[in-house]
Design a protein that fits this description.
Blueprint: H1 5-8, H2 10-26, H3 32-60, H4 67-97, H5 100-129, H6 138-144, H7 162-174, H8 193-198, H9 216-222, H10 241-252, H11 266-269, H12 281-286, H13 288-292, E1 296-299, E2 307-310, H14 316-319, H15 322-326, E3 333-337, H16 345-349, E4 359-361, E5 383-385, E6 407-409
Parallel strand pairs: 2-3, 3-4, 4-5, 5-6
Antiparallel strand pairs: 1-2
Helix pairs in contact: 2-3, 2-5, 3-4, 4-5, 6-7, 7-10
């Protein structure tokens, strides 16, 4: 049902514009028939706004969006739905009372709704298309204007600076909107080196350094635009031949990410961050086994600092010993992603050792209701993702003592 949001959201936008235009047209000559027409449009607008808000909440629960941006979009969308009903009620009262007090109150609510529509729409557009959708930065403009087409497809000894000067702007201009921090379609991110190489939910390796021909990213860039898996999709601007050729050459040259990457490299994770959970180079060195298993280790950018550990892309056979290996640094881990893992009873019992966790991702695991009792020691937990598990709403009673828990995602396929 959530996907209907993308269809329904256009209806309230069109109706609010129609309502404002009609209000301006009849403002000097208000008749009963005109008021009834406006009233019917207002009630239709109310219903469409509520349906858009409800389907938007359902779509948001499927995941893949930036939490803060999603939360702001949902709250403003719900606020718009409420104010739309207030607007219609005030208009209904005005039709019966016929006083300027009620007319002005109705018009104020209508104007507020009109303004809020722009805010909600902007937040939604940012979720879908990225922060630079309306105002692309200079890097994006440069990437889209790059037209000098290389004539050789293959290894060409590109300079190390080519990633920073050309490849990164191309990714930023054409890929980051759907595969970046705000949104991860297909569970794929181009701004994280490990995931950019490993690939998304297709299970195919996206970038094979030294072998562009077998890289899934290149295969999708070369597909005909009408095809379903072509990238970018047909409704987006296509990459130029020059841009695709350069990406191919970059991959064939080893896909070097240079010193500064849009990914989380080991060099970036050794930077200490905070006073509460200070992360040292020795801490990072101790976690090298995670990166070797295709996991991700980052120092968070939060004020409290701490470590973010993402084991989502670690193969199950390599995952088995990792939780226990994390115990020496458990107090410094504030973000842990165990999505898609089959967890043994012994592993679930280890959760109590990660007492400073703020975010815990357990989607698509084999967790059941009784397993939630093992989370009671996580007194600082604020976010818990249980989507596509065997947990039901009846199991949430176990989580009642966790006073700081603000967000729980529990959604089934």
């Amino acid at each position: 049902m959530g996907r209907f949001h993308l269809l329904l959201l256009h209806l309230p936008i069109g109706l609010i514009f129609a309502n404002v235009i009609i209000e301006l047209l009849i403002s000097k000559n208000r008749t009963i028939n005109r008021e009834k027409l406006l009233g019917n449009l207002l009630w239709t607008w109310n219903i469409s706004t509520v349906l858009a808000a409800l389907t938007g909440v359902l779509l948001g629960n499927t995941g893949g969006y930036d939490d803060n941006l999603l939360e702001n979009h949902q709250y403003t969308g719900i606020a718009l739905a409420v104010i739309s009903w207030v607007t219609s009620i005030l208009h209904f009262v005005f039709m019966n009372k016929k006083t300027n007090v009620w007319l002005n109150a109705y018009r104020t609510a209508l104007a507020l709704s009109f303004l809020l529509t722009f805010i909600v729409g902007h937040l939604g557009g940012t979720l879908t298309h990225g922060e630079s959708f309306l105002f692309p930065d200079e890097e994006i403009e440069e990437a889209n204007q790059f037209t000098t087409s290389p004539t050789i497809i293959g290894k060409s000894n590109l300079p190390p600076s080519v990633y920073q000067s050309k490849i990164k702007p191309i990714f930023k201009a054409n890929c980051l909107k759907c595969h970046g921090p705000s949104k991860q379609k297909g569970d794929y991110r181009i701004d994280n080196k490990t995931i950019a190489i490993q690939g998304g939910d297709s299970g195919r390796v996206a970038i094979i350094p030294g072998n562009a021909a077998d890289s899934e990213l290149v295969k999708r860039l070369l597909k005909d635009r009408p095809e379903k898996k072509a990238m970018p999709p047909k409704e987006k601007k296509a990459l130029t031949k020059a841009q695709i050729d350069l990406i191919i050459k970059w991959i064939n040259d080893g896909a070097k990410w240079a010193d500064e990457t849009i990914a989380s490299s080991p060099k970036k994770t050794v930077v200490a961050v905070d006073k509460l959970y200070n992360i040292t180079k020795q801490d990072i060195d101790k976690l090298s086994f995670i990166r070797k298993a295709n996991g991700i280790v980052e120092a968070t950018k939060w004020d409290i600092g701490g470590l973010m550990i993402n084991l989502k892309y670690v193969p199950q056979n390599k995952f088995e010993p990792i939780l226990e290996q994390l115990l020496p640094l458990a107090d410094k881990i504030v973000w842990l992603d165990l999505s898609r893992k089959q967890l043994s009873a012994e592993q679930v019992k280890l959760f109590k050792n990660f007492k400073n966790l703020v975010r815990l991702h357990l989607s698509e695991t084999n967790l059941v209701n009784d397993d939630l009792s093992e989370l009671l020691e996580l007194k600082k937990i604020e976010y818990l993702n249980l989507n596509h598990t065997k947990v039901t709403k009846n199991g949430l009673i176990y989580l009642k003592p966790l006073k700081h828990l603000k967000k729980i995602y529990l959604w089934d396929k």
